[in-house]
Amino acid sequence: MLVLVGCGGSSGPTTSSFKAEFKVQKAKLHTLGDEIGSAVEDAGNLTDAALAKQFEGLASSATSLAGALGQLNPPSKFKDELASLQSSVTQVAGTLHSIEAAAAANDAASAKAGGEAIVADAQQVKSLDETLSKKLGLPAE
Which of 57, 66, 79, 110 could form a disulfide with 90 if both were Cys (CB 3.0 to 4.6 A apart)? Predict the structure, then answer.
């Protein structure tokens, strides 16, 4: 009788490999958060066209980051938290696009509403990031 040892699927992703991959995306998330905060603070100093361009770039960065988070392969115990974080980053991208559109349309009221919404979105992302980071033993920052 022949016994095959080691055949079958892999044991799945490890916490340490996921932690290393997530740490890279976490740094990008932190940078994006800083850039969004600065953009919201400086919004009153820009023309509508410049504001639209700036928020278009931020929305593109958020969309890319959400995609990168979706490409991570976490162990099952982290999948729900990662999915929630990815969803929230996607929501941030949508809000940034709405600010971009409002600026392009010279719609100050909608742009202001978007600015208020992005603050709430960012708080949600920060909370989800802190929860996942804590589970992984990473500093919350």
Answer: 66
CA distance 112 to 99: 8
Q: In terms of residue numbers, what domain contains 40?
A: 15-134
Distance, in Å, from the CA atom of 131 to the CA atom of 123, rounded to the nearest integer, reads 12
Share of the chain above pLDDT 70, in %: 91
Q: Angle CA(127)–CA(132)–CA(136) in degrees, nearest 5?
A: 145
The CATH number of the domain where 128 resides is what?
1.20.120
If you ran DSSP here, which 8-state letter would residue 105 be given?
A: T
Length of the chain in residues, anyone?
141
- How many domains, the chain? 1
Question: Does the residue 7 lie in any domain?
Answer: no
pTM of the model: 0.88
Q: Where do runs of H (alpha helix) occur along 43-75?
A: 48-71
